[in-house]
Amino acid sequence: MKIAMLARNADLYSHKRLKEAAEERGLQLDIINTLRCYMNIAARRPEIYYNGEKLTGYDAVIPRIGASITFYGLAILRQFEMMGVYPLNESVAIGRSRDKLRSLQLLARDGIGLPVTTFAHDPKMTEEVLKVAGGAPVVIKLLEGTQGIGVVLADTERSAKSVIEAFRGANVNILVQEFIKEAGGTDIRALVVGGKVVAAMKRSGPEGEFRSNLHRGGTAARVRISPEERSIAVRAAKAMGLNVCGVDMLRSNHGPVVMEVNSSPGLEGVENATGIDVAGKIIEFLIKNAKAGKTKTKGKG
């Protein structure tokens, strides 16, 4: 079995682990720099070239596409799909998860618990938006932010209005969400592979920090999640159409609520915290499921 992994940095822990896991099982995994690929978009004969050579013979593709290159990365992934190569996560599903507003709408449609979330275009609607979100404190998020970047906690109505008006004045799209104070700066990340939660960790932010992202100095520990949290994580992955993802949840007074579904979750934190071979489980999923032309969307959408 021959696997292509779309990734810009071959030295990242997650990418090295996936390559190790594949090679331990006798598979070939090539790490391909997404931005060095180019396409021949020809009728009935889609092709991808990399460093001047045509890419052929791949059975599966693992997209590890950074948020900053989502548009080009998904274009390359769609080309693989049109060539009949099985994707770990499909292009349409990744596109859904990268659009924070669309992903929350899809989760809400499926009855999955969310923090109260508001979205408006006109900065003159600031007071109404804050009222719907339950008033300060609120969390204000850029639609395009990742790893906790572009996320602001506004403690007072005044500061919330200032931040919202500043973002909207710069023509930046934002979401305003209720602040789940009882979570205490911690969240749960559940790793879903093939419709099952294979590992879970509790992430805690540093002192005085409400964001628990490991990239922002947070710490992680193994956690036992409830049957309800396990069910919500699986349902969230299904709502996005993702085979592999990290589902971030907060424990609120009214039950678990989903903050985000990450289509390219990092493996270092969860493997170190839990001791579980998540990379191996991802490769095993591909071995079991990768079949030529099995992509549901065939590059459409």
TrEMBL record:
GO BP field: SOS response; translation
Gene that specifies this protein: rimK
ATP-grasp domain mapped to chain residues: 104-287
Name of the featured protein: Probable alpha-L-glutamate ligase
Gene Ontology CC annotation, any one: cytoplasm
Residues the entry annotates as binding Mg(2+) 2: E260, N262
Cofactor comment text: Binds 2 magnesium or manganese ions per subunit.
EC numbers: 6.3.2.-
